[in-house]
Amino acid sequence: MEAIILQILNGLDKGSAYALIALGLTLIFGTLGVVNFAHGALFMIGAFCAVTLSRIISASHTIIDDTQTDFLGNPLKVEVPYVMDWFGEATGAAIIDWAVPLSILFAIPVMIAIGVIMERGLIKHFYKRPHADQILVTFGLAIVLQEIIKYYYGANPIPTPAPSAFVGSFDFGTMLGFEANQIIYPYWRIIYFAFAAVIIGAVFAFLQFTTFGMVVRAGMADRETVQLLGINIDRRFTLMFGIAAAVAGLAGVMYTPINSPNYHMGMDFLVLSFVVVVVGGMGSLPGAVAAGFLLGILESFASMREVLAVLPGLNQIIIYLVAIIILLTRPRGLMGRKGVMEE
């Protein structure tokens, strides 16, 4: 039972990332009809927003500290972050420590701007082109963005730690009545799952309960009728592209303590996220979220030592096997709509 609970927790953690990226992908496809293979790159850029802000607030200058000396008795040169000069030592240290959560505030406008520029500068020219053309151009854009990140940040992963308050693990077992140290899980992975739940809930609430969201949903169902009512649906769809980019970016920001940012992390998640979208049903937001968590949990169970001892490598292919089975039995996916990508 302890192993099962632990694998469910692992699956929810991984499924959170899949669900957030797939949610953004589905928002773009559902509003604009674009198959965006650059969406994984937006996840990567979000992660590097956290790296960038961490570097900015950790910028320092050198001072001579007369209270410290080297082995020859000379005063030491020490690096003092500027934020400690501006806000005091305690506050400055706290700002540096909380760099990753603070990156959320930095990443939101950056990712929305990148999404709007991407849509207005490139994607809009491919609305009426075949999906194959959309895939080729967005995949090419993803490679370009990946190489830009590699040029400026290097090829090696960049460790970006979580705040010290969330370093360590939580004993789930004692909370559930098990013995101590039976079900231990890292604090930050719990935070990531909770964060993903909040973002997913916020997106659904935005679409369901705001006037802007209602217009967008109407435009997704019947774009021409909404335009005939005098509503500039294209402007709203452009902003939705920016919101989808922000969702992917925030997923990347909060994932940095779990997986150190590197230039190819977007590609690592891209293919899996498209499988999630297809399994959930093209154009279905609930389907994307449900499939993300489902496949994350299945992948987690397939990674157990007991399973791998019987079926080596199953964890590498389980998502694709499930996708094949579901699409053979339900060609539109779990919650796919009739007519989506069936022309």
UniProtKB/TrEMBL annotation:
Membrane topology reported for the UniProt record: Multi-pass membrane protein
Top-level taxon: Bacteria
Annotated keywords: Amino-acid transport, Cell membrane, Membrane, Transmembrane, Transmembrane helix, Transport
Compartmental location: Cell membrane
GO biological process: amino acid transport
InterPro entries: ABC_transp_permease (IPR001851), BCAA_transport_permease (IPR052157)
Cell membrane keyword on record: yes
Molecular functions (GO terms): transmembrane transporter activity
Regions that span the bilayer: 16-35, 42-64, 98-123, 190-216, 237-258, 270-295, 307-328
Coiled coil: none
GO cellular-component term (any): plasma membrane
Record-stated family: Belongs to the binding-protein-dependent transport system permease family. LivHM subfamily.
Entry protein name: Branched-chain amino acid ABC transporter permease
